[in-house]
């Protein structure tokens, strides 16, 4: 088969130079203040993301900015966990974030012009570090304690970290015994690290007991019962809709996982045997992911678990790798969708809200799988918490299109499924209006007629 030849020639999991020891070099064991003491003005800094955010180093850096009058510190990162200390107004003009994906505390800074947002596919991020388009003078990271041979692990956040670390001139790490030691492309030898700061705290994550609404439960059930087959390979992230979908898959068989982001929802299905990865074409027997975020209980499940394979997002999100999976079923979400199938996922009107992430990577590949059985799914509730329809005649002014109308195949709300593949605009409008909230449908039909000059129809 074509996918098999391609996979085995060029797309086996990536290897990293970071596992090779540097002879005669050992890291300095220092305090956080000592670790950042060599950082000066006009410096490009990579910050390890999400669960792995090294807050102790960020606090020490901000303290150094305060005491030494540093300026023009440029931070590049995906989502950050914990506090982001430079959101204080006193750091404006001194520390500036380049956000590859936005989170709550940095949205106001981007909106006010005091931080920047980079629209980019997750699969592309490592290449920009490798070719120095994203320069890195210093990488601030989190690792596990070294083992007897001196090997540390980057834990639950491989994503872009390996590429950034490889390109960095200097590497500073917090060493946390509570960081899960994970399998896959996750190893860095301690001799590659310049300075180590020992800490002991819980890895950043979600609280126990996420609430799922009735609408989200309905969406999960609709997806599980109508769009997920036995033997499917799943991509889905974290949050209420992915978790509700997983809850509804208890009776499925031989499911596999190939995703960019892994959350708590998979654990019960793995323990019950519903997820066993036996039918996967790529790395059968393994759950494949690039990073993970969840509860402390989830992190204990990941610790030294050989079933979970972590790898660089340039591989997990590579279109040919995704296409090679059997029955690849990708479930993503959106903020808003218009009646032609344009999906906005990174902004609310003119305000940047999140980022591209891997949605387009997976949506594109799932619709063009080598076995012809992939499914590209967008799931969202029909209305916002404030009662505004998420299905609109035209996108809100300023809203950005992440997934184009040509990529949209299945859209799911609590009212059903709109199948858009191969449909003309009139048919798409009809299908999408039929899964809008009932109280919004008459208005949407009238607006659709005004826009299309004909009535939406099947």
From TrEMBL:
InterPro entries found in the cross-reference section: AcetylCoA_hyd_C, AcetylCoA_hyd_C_sf, ActCoA_hydro, ActCoA_hydro_N, NagB/RpiA_transferase-like
Coiled coil (UniProt feature): none
A Gene Ontology term for the protein's cellular component: mitochondrion
Domain Acetyl-CoA hydrolase/transferase C-terminal as annotated: residue spans: 294-448
Family listed: Belongs to the acetyl-CoA hydrolase/transferase family.
Alphabetical list of PANTHER family matching this protein: ACETYL-COA HYDROLASE, ACETYL-COA HYDROLASE-RELATED
Protein name: Acetyl-CoA hydrolase
């Amino acid at each position: 088969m074509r996918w098999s030849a391609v996979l085995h020639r060029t797309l086996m999991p990536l290897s990293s130079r970071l596992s090779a020891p540097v002879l005669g070099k050992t890291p300095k064991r220092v305090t956080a203040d000592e670790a950042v003491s060599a950082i000066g003005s006009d410096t490009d800094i990579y910050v390890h993301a999400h669960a792995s955010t090294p807050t102790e180093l960020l606090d020490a850096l901000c303290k150094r900015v305060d005491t030494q009058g540093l300026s023009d510190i440029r931070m590049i990162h995906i989502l950050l966990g914990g506090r982001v200390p430079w959101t204080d107004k006193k750091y404006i003009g001194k520390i500036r974030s380049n956000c590859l994906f936005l989170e709550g505390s940095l949205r106001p800074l981007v909106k006010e012009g005091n931080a920047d947002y980079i629209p980019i596919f997750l699969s592309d991020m490592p290449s920009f570090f490798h070719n120095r388009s994203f320069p890195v003078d210093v990488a601030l990271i989190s690792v596990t304690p070294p083992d007897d041979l001196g090997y540390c692990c980057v834990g639950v956040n491989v994503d872009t970290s390996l590429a950034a670390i490889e390109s960095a001139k200097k590497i500073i790490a917090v060493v946390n015994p509570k960081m899960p030691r994970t399998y896959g492309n996750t190893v860095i030898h301690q001799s590659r690290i310049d300075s180590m700061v020992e800490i002991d705290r819980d890895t950043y994550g979600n609280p126990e007991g996420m609430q799922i609404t009735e609408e989200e439960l309905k969406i999960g059930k609709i997806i599980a019962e109508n769009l997920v087959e036995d033997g499917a390979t799943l991509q889905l992230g974290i949050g209420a809709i992915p978790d509700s979908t997983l809850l509804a898959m208890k009776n499925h068989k031989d499911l596999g996982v190939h995703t960019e982001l892994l959350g708590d929802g998979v654990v019960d299905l793995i323990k019950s045997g519903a997820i066993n990865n036996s039918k996967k074409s790529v790395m059968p027997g393994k759950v494949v992911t690039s990073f993970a975020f969840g509860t402390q209980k989830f992190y204990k499940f990941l610790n030294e678990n050989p079933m979970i394979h972590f790898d660089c997002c340039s591989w997990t999100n590579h279109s040919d790798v995704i296409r090679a999976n059997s029955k690849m079923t990708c479930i993503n979400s959106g903020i808003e969708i218009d009646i032609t199938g344009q999906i906005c996922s990174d902004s609310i009107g003119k305000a940047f809200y999140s980022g591209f992430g891997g949605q387009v990577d997976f949506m594109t590949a799932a619709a063009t799988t080598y076995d012809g059985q992939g499914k590209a799914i967008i799931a969202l509730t029909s209305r916002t918490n404030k009662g505004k329809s998420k299905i609109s005649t035209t996108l809100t002014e300023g809203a950005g299109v992440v997934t184009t109308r040509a990529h949209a195949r299945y859209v799911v709300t609590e009212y059903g499924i709109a199948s858009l593949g191969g449909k003309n605009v009139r048919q798409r409008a009809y299908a999408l209006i039929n899964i809008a909230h009932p109280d919004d449908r008459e208005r949407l039909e009238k607006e659709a007629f005004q826009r299309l000059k004909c009535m939406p129809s099947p």
